[in-house]
């Protein structure tokens, strides 16, 4: 779809706390929303190297559940794969981070994140590993406190006893509006080594169009919580606006950012994110004839999707559906859908919260049936390993 830039001047201020780890040196994003810096590793949500040929994937794909990795998880939300194949998973309501052995499914609790105030849709949400994790062992987390949503980082010390392996949290960014609903929560480091965060408007629809508010936005930050170099609005962390509740972030093989977004009563969305663009909420839900709004790549009725996490693999975006109880495949050509979306696993595993690349043609998939809105079965919640094409 055609994308239209919206010009604006921003004088945004966010209350930032910084600490002494390197802020990275990622360059500003390109005009198509991609990063111009050369990545030193694979981006979160990406499985194809920069510079690889861009091919249109087949119109029809496939999904096979290779195995159940782990069961018995309580309100799982965020997922961060480790280099050795193990997984870190956050519990929204228990405010804990647990390490799951990627082979045996054995669970080891790292510890509880202090300061989390779970209520409604808030709690301990997304987690991500530092771009320098091999040397700094830093885990980032997005959570709801008593006053706001914020991002912290903690050292993960494997040498300490289980339950005591998380260091004291260092708050790198705060002041994101909180509510009983629409707290956003997904965080991920991009190919440019900058930290991206999807936020919600906390039920106050006016925040989404207010470029001085952090609600209803995608934010782009340095690892220290500063507005990232090259952001579209001067001295602001805001990367895009006019969102309702962003809970999915992923980059394709050309380093283009995509995001999933909850609609209200009519249309959920998958969006291709261009820096500085306005995605319409609350004036537009789904496609719009207003040339000032960036239209979605695709849209779904809310009972088919209610999307949370997304990942990129095999030329497609894979989108986990909560209310829809299914996994969507959206094949891409550039930043447009190249064929109709396909639904998989419909009503087989209940609510689906998070999907993440697992290497090659594989994905991790996390269910969300113990979050108060699902119908949990005996083994819920669980992590699945999928083979996709």
From TrEMBL:
PROSITE patterns documented for this protein: PROKAR_LIPOPROTEIN (PS51257)
Biased composition regions of type Low complexity, renumbered to the chain: 31-51
Highest taxon listed in the record's lineage: Bacteria
Limits of the Glucose/Sorbosone dehydrogenase domain: 73-373
Segments traversing the membrane: none
Signal peptide per UniProt: 1-24
Entry-linked Pfam families: GSDH
Biased composition (Basic and acidic residues): 372-389
Record-linked InterPro entries: 6-blade_b-propeller_TolB-like, Glc/Sorbosone_DH, Quinoprot_gluc/sorb_DH_b-prop
Region (Disordered): 22-62, 283-303, 367-389
Keywords, comma-separated and alphabetical: Signal
Keyword Ion transport in record: no
Identification of the protein by name: PQQ-dependent sugar dehydrogenase
Organism: Streptomyces edwardsiae
């Amino acid at each position: 779809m055609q994308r239209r830039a919206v010009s604006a001047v921003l004088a945004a201020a966010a209350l930032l706390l910084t600490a002494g780890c390197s802020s990275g040196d990622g360059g500003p994003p390109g005009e198509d929303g991609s990063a111009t810096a050369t990545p030193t590793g694979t981006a979160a949500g990406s499985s194809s190297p920069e510079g690889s040929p861009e091919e249109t994937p087949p119109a029809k794909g496939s999904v096979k559940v290779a195995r159940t990795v782990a069961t018995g998880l309580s309100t799982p939300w965020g997922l961060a794969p480790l280099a050795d194949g193990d997984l870190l998973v956050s519990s929204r309501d228990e405010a804990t981070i647990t390490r799951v052995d990627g082979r045996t499914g054995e669970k080891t609790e790292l510890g509880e994140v202090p300061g989390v105030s779970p209520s409604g849709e808030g709690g301990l949400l997304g987690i991500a590993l530092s771009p320098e994790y091999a040397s700094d062992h830093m885990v980032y987390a997005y959570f709801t406190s008593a006053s706001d949503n914020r991002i912290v980082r903690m050292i993960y010390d494997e040498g300490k006893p289980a339950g005591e392996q998380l260091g004291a949290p260092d708050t790198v960014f705060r002041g994101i509006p909180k509510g009983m609903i629409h707290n956003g929560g997904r965080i991920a480091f991009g190919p440019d080594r900058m930290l991206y965060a999807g936020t919600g408007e906390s039920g106050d629809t006016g925040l989404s169009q207010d470029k001085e508010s952090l609600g209803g936005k995608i934010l782009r930050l340095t690892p220290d919580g500063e507005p990232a170099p090259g952001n579209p609005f001067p001295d602001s962390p805001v990367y895009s606006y006019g969102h309702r509740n962003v809970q999915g972030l992923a980059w394709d093989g050309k380093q283009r950012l995509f995001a999933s977004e909850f609609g209200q009563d009519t249309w959920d969305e998958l969006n291709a994110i261009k820096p500085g663009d306005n995605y319409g909420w609350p004036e537009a839900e789904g496609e719009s004839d207003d040339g000032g709004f960036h239209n979605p790549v695709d849209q779904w009725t809310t009972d088919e999707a209610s999307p949370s996490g997304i990942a990129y693999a095999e030329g497609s975006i894979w989108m986990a559906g909560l209310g829809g109880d299914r996994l969507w495949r959206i094949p891409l050509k550039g930043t447009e859908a190249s064929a109709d979306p396909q639904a998989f696993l419909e009503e087989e595993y209940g609510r689906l919260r998070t999907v993440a690349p697992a290497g090659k043609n594989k994905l991790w998939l996390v269910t969300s049936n113990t979050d108060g809105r699902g119908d949990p079965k005996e083994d819920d919640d669980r992590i699945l390993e999928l083979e996709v094409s």
